[in-house]
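Please produce the structure of this protein holding iron/sulfur cluster.
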Amino acid sequence: MRKRIASTKAETALEQAGRGQRMSREEALVLACRNGQPEPVPLDELLGAASQVRQQGKGKTVTFSKKVFIPLTTLCRDYCSYCTFRKDPGQPGAHFMTPDEVLALAEQGRRAGCKEALFSLGDQPERIFPEAREFLRRQGYACTLDYLAAMCELVLERTGLLPHANPGVMDGALLDKLKGSNASVGLMLENVSVRLMREGLPHANAPDKVPALRLRTMEEAGKRSMAFTTGILIGIGETMEERVDSLLAIRAMHEKYGHIQEVIVQNFRAKPDIPMAHHAEPSLEEMLRTLAVARLILGARVNLQAPPNLSYDDFPRLLDAGINDWGGISPVTKDFINPEAAWPQISRLQKETEARGFLLRERLAIYPEFVARDKFVSPRVRGKIGALAAADGFASRGGVEAP
Ligand code: SF4
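Below is the modeled complex.
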């Protein structure tokens, strides 16, 4: 027998959210962390409401993007204590990719059927490392972000893959440049809490993790009508209340500009070589609860993503919490941010998704609802999208033809 909901407040909040009503902060806190209520909302009730809301906006379709991951540089001026991607010059794995390396990797992705080139990189390493400045000078660039813009152009023109840049904090001038070559751009908000920047907490030595800077990047992208990927990182020492506030900040941004194409909920995983090696990871139940609350806060139409590889064999259960996207899956490159966690094969993703009654569809680096919208992509990128999209805006069945 199902356990009954713990309190009238929680029951009302769930019923209203299930009907698609906009959720207040107080209601979200009751569902996420009791907020003075005697018991937490039973997980199955929360998951049921989140699934109902997803059904209203997304039906039975669950998506993924076939991508090649291009780690343009592992050098970074920040020192987030959960990060295994960043390196200092001289450390094993410290690298700036040359244009030839970028093209070779993108081409490998194209041949394997990828349609997205995801550029991930450390934040502005030239600000603290002479080695980074020297590399950029030899390539003819003053800063990493200009080099990134040029590499996006190169990949778009020479391979036809759609770039999606995820370089950290961006200003308006850079976004203007990226709009000429990117189908969408991204920046994880991670969390709106400035508390996480205090000594001993994960963002203490990460100047680019100031929440106001990240919100400003999201806002600048919104002003420019650029499809934007963002999300939260959970389990890094934040409270549930801070998670809720972060989701509410994303919702507010989307309500203002209508440009948030997807929201990722990413769970922290401990790794032996990071300062947070012994920090507790969020449990599967915590992940499910957070995802369900995210769906209820964000509503039926926002795309909600959870990376399957970070839940290992439990990943199909994430579908119970209202997600409708698995994110980028690469047939050629590992997850450089979580190198210990292999992506499931696309065939397994399809089998598990269909076993739960959903239809798995490949999407592009830009979601179907944004493909059709005026102003959201430059004419040049629109031309490239036209060669890759089916009539309904999802990815067509074929691969990218060599230009
Ligand atoms: S998470 Fe990003 S910003 Fe932080 S250290 Fe790693 S690469 Fe740098």
